[in-house]
């Protein structure tokens, strides 16, 4: 029973005691019982319920905010905002009911609250004010069998969403991953002129078109039908199909062996329908996309030493013959140890590289045969507070952009930032 239900019962008990005392002192033959039932009904109407008698209800989520101090080589500032789409503060309602032994049905309703959406922040502070508010990140129902697996229908994470990211068990996944959550919409600054370069956002390197930026190039929830197998010996698989038209498959493994914790996951997806114009490519329709990703995590349990890595290959084919291909590499290594009574402390260093090549024609800022190269390195520390289900972090990142694309636009100033934030679960 949740805290609100307990509070309601306690209040009802106090109310009942008060009314009973008044009734005994006045007139036992009055309408005290009818009045009590009415007051209890009022309390119950304003109290969050655990669920009906058949379907359970679990409420969970987190609140996360951070301060980002940035310098683009010509301007510096500090912003307060959230952690980016899919990592923003949110509340999730999950329910489940037993149909028969080994069979269940349920639902998930996942609402995100955007506050200075970090994916939209740039030197102009916020170029997309609409990225503040609420949105249904997930809304789907499912039927699950312990033996046959799970089928779910609705807006949800497709099989390849966050596949490579979620194997990261270091405790530093939120502040340090291979998606450009913090700098996606920041414009590059020309070394030659000192001016911002229109259409050259840092998050555009690698040209993700299905959600995501740098890595996780199919990273937004979609309306899909998804199937998940049961877990056999640490292995599980998923597949999904989405509208107009996306399909994907994923394979995962997690286990512990000889003092080591190991997890690995890989996924492949195709987007085959030319949809609405994609802003990164101007007037061109969204291309046919093939994306492969793999991520792996290894931790030595006794010492807390860990290493995590991810790789993604993104291929784009446009109806007018244009092509583009990029490779993204990410590695993070560090130490996870209980150095104080609060909880685990995580130290890490990270490196990311995105290299892209325009194979034919001209595409946005790309000329035929143009290439781009992005390097990102960073350091950070995370402190977990177990008693509050909370994490605090401070981190630094340095970005540099090269290749003949950078040369064509007069060179690019390096970008660097420090961020300090916290996330608390409920």
TrEMBL record:
Gene3D superfamilies according to UniProt: Porin (2.40.160.10)
A molecular function (GO) term: porin activity
Gene Ontology, cellular component aspect: membrane
Alphabetic keyword roster: Signal
InterPro entries: Gram_neg_porin_domain, Porin_dom_sf
Protein name from the UniProt record: Porin domain-containing protein
Transmembrane segments: none
Organism listed in the record: Hyphomicrobium nitrativorans NL23
Tree of life domain: Bacteria
One Pfam family of this chain: Porin_4
Domain Porin: 11-403
Annotated coiled-coil segments of the chain: none
Residues in the signal sequence: 1-25
């Amino acid at each position: 029973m949740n805290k609100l239900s307990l509070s309601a019962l306690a209040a009802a008990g106090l109310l009942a005691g008060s009314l009973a005392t008044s009734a005994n002192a006045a007139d036992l033959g009055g309408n005290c019982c009818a009045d009590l039932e009415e007051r209890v009904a009022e309390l119950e109407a304003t109290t969050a319920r655990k669920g009906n008698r058949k379907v359970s209800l679990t409420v969970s989520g987190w609140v996360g905010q951070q301060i980002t101090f940035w310098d683009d080589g010509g301007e510096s500032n500090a912003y307060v905002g959230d952690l980016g789409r899919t990592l923003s503060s949110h509340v999730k309602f999950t329910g489940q009911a037993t149909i028969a032994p080994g069979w269940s049905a349920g639902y998930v309703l996942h609402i995100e609250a955007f506050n200075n959406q970090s994916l939209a922040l740039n030197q102009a502070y916020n170029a997309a004010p609409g990225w503040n508010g609420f949105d249904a990140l997930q809304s789907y129902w499912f039927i699950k069998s312990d033996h046959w697996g799970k089928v779910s229908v609705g807006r949800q994470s497709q099989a390849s969403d966050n596949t490579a990211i979620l194997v990261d068990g270091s405790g530093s996944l939120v502040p340090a991953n291979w998606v450009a959550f913090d700098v996606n919409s920041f414009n590059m600054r020309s070394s030659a002129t000192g001016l911002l370069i229109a259409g050259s956002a840092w998050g555009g390197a690698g040209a993700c078109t299905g959600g995501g930026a740098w890595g996780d190039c199919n990273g937004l929830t979609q309306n899909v039908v998804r199937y998940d197998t049961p877990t056999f010996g640490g292995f599980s698989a998923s597949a999904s199909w989405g509208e107009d038209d996306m399909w994907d498959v994923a394979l995962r493994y997690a286990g512990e062996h000889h003092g080591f914790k190991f997890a690995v996951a890989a996924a492949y997806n195709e987007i085959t329908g030319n949809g609405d114009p994609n802003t990164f490519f101007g007037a061109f329709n969204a291309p046919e996309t093939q994306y492969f990703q793999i991520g792996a995590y290894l931790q030595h349990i006794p010492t807390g030493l860990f290493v995590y890595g991810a790789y993604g290959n993104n291929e784009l084919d446009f109806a007018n013959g244009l092509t583009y291909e990029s490779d993204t590499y990410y590695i993070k290594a560090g130490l996870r140890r209980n150095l104080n009574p609060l909880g685990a402390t995580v130290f890490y260093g990270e490196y990311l590289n995105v290299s892209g090549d325009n194979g034919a024609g001209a595409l946005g800022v790309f000329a035929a045969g143009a290439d781009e190269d992005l390097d990102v390195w960073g350091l950070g520390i995370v402190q977990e507070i177990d008693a509050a289900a909370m994490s605090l972090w401070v981190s630094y990142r340095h970005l540099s952009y090269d290749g003949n694309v950078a040369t064509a636009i007069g060179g690019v100033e390096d970008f660097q930032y420090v961020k300090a934030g916290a996330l608390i679960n409920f």
